[in-house]
UniProtKB/TrEMBL annotation:
InterPro entries: Pectin_lyas_fold, Pectin_lyase_fold/virulence, Pectinesterase_Asp_AS, Pectinesterase_cat. The keyword Signal applies. Pfam families: Pectinesterase. It is an enzyme of class 3 (hydrolase). Residues 1-28 form the signal peptide. It comes from Nepenthes gracilis (Slender pitcher plant). Its EC number is 3.1.1.11. Belongs to the pectinesterase family. This is Pectinesterase. Residues 64-348 form the Pectinesterase catalytic domain. It catalyses: [(1->4)-alpha-D-galacturonosyl methyl ester](n) + n H2O = [(1->4)-alpha-D-galacturonosyl](n) + n methanol + n H(+).
């Protein structure tokens, strides 16, 4: 009985008090993200956290990584290795300022890990792995296989040279996430082609920055991006922002971008291309610069997928949001059609989504 009361108390604290930075929601629909970006602040909402998460959050441990030797470890890799397989408590790896030149993997057996940097002096995780060396999806600077992962205030970069169209295997990941129920806050993902492999699982991103050239957000995650920036690096004749990897219309993967910004110049970028037969990508309340091509979307020279893609837009603005010029198979969504994708329910947030810690 005492344990049950304690778990309910923890749930109430997390869900009612600590969801700082998530949308302010109307009482009529407590999970829908509001149209007014100025209302995207704090909120109070109710729900039920996964019992394993409640247990993990009730017993936190902080590990400090400092390059100067003043912490528990000098490298992030050493800190991750110190977490036991089968871990059941929230492990917060506090990373000091500086550049950490490492190729970091968080194994599936190590859930509940948080990588945390100082927002005033964000550390950089950097490596230069490429597809030619490791294979595309294994080239990342940081690869996360485990569940309940959180990252806050980090720069994650792949330092490999920009692909020039001549070198084979030049694509290079900064980050890959395969685990379920991951959240990133105030993180910057830097690369060129294939910067971020949003591979599988339910994921949440807030106040993040992702840059690249070709397919720089790709994979089959079911992900909600809030108040984040997608920056197209200039210099290529054509750029592709997303390559969402849904295989068929019954798969549950998809990317929803809400109150985001698409930046860059030159009308070179497609919002998405049909890398797989049934990609699902929705932009809502998004400000788009003139980097976005008028047609908006690409069938990847496979006209047969026009019947299976789900490309949607809702109340976006800016010179790149030219609804009248879009390809015919893209959808200008009505509120009833977009409501699923502008809701925290899209990623079942009430079961697992928590704010970043304060360290």
């Amino acid at each position: 009985m005492a344990r049950n009361l304690r778990e309910r108390a923890i749930q109430g604290i997390f869900l009612s008090c600590l969801l700082v930075g998530l949308p302010t929601i109307s009482l009529a629909d407590p999970n829908t993200i509001p149209a007014d970006v100025n209302q995207v602040n704090g909120c109070e909402r109710k729900g039920t956290l996964d019992p394993a998460l409640v247990n993990a959050e009730s017993s936190q441990k902080i590990i400090r990584v400092r390059k100067d030797g003043s912490g528990d470890f000098k490298t992030v890799t050493e800190a991750v290795k110190s977490v036991p397989a089968g871990n059941t408590q929230r492990i917060i790896i506090s990373i000091g300022p500086g550049v950490y030149w490492e190729k970091i993997t968080i194994e599936r057996t190590k859930p509940f890990i948080t990588l945390y940097g100082d927002p005033k002096d964000m550390p950089t995780l950097k490596f230069d792995g490429t597809a030619a060396q490791y294979g595309t999806v294994y080239s990342g600077t940081l690869s996360v296989y485990s569940n309940y992962f959180v990252a806050a205030n980090l720069i994650i970069a792949n330092a490999a040279p920009r692909p020039d169209g001549k070198r084979l295997g030049a694509q290079a990941l900064a980050l890959r996430i395969l685990g379920e129920k991951a959240a990133l806050y105030n993180c910057r993902l830097l690369g060129f082609q294939d910067t971020f492999n949003d591979d599988t699982g339910k994921h949440f991103f807030k106040d993040c920055y992702i840059e690249g050239t070709v397919d720089f957000v790709f994979g089959d995650g079911r992900s909600l991006y809030l108040n984040s920036e997608l920056h197209v690096i200039p210099g290529d004749r054509v750029a592709m922002i997303t390559a969402q990897g849904r295989q068929n219309q019954n798969d549950n993967g998809g990317y929803s971008f809400v109150h985001c910004r698409v930046t860059g110049t030159g009308q070179i970028a497609f919002l998405g291309r049909a890398w797989m037969p049934a990609p699902r990508v929705i932009f809502s309340y998004t400000t788009m610069s003139d980097v976005v091509r008028p047609e908006g979307w690409s069938d990847n020279f496979k006209p047969q997928v026009q019947k299976t893609v789900f490309y949607g837009e809702y109340q976006s603005v800016g010179p790149g949001a030219q609804a009248n010029s879009r390809v015919k198979y893209a959808k200008a969504l009505a509120y009833g059609q977009v409501q699923e994708y502008i809701s925290l329910d899209f990623i079942e947030a009430a079961k697992w989504l928590l704010p970043p810690p304060r360290v």
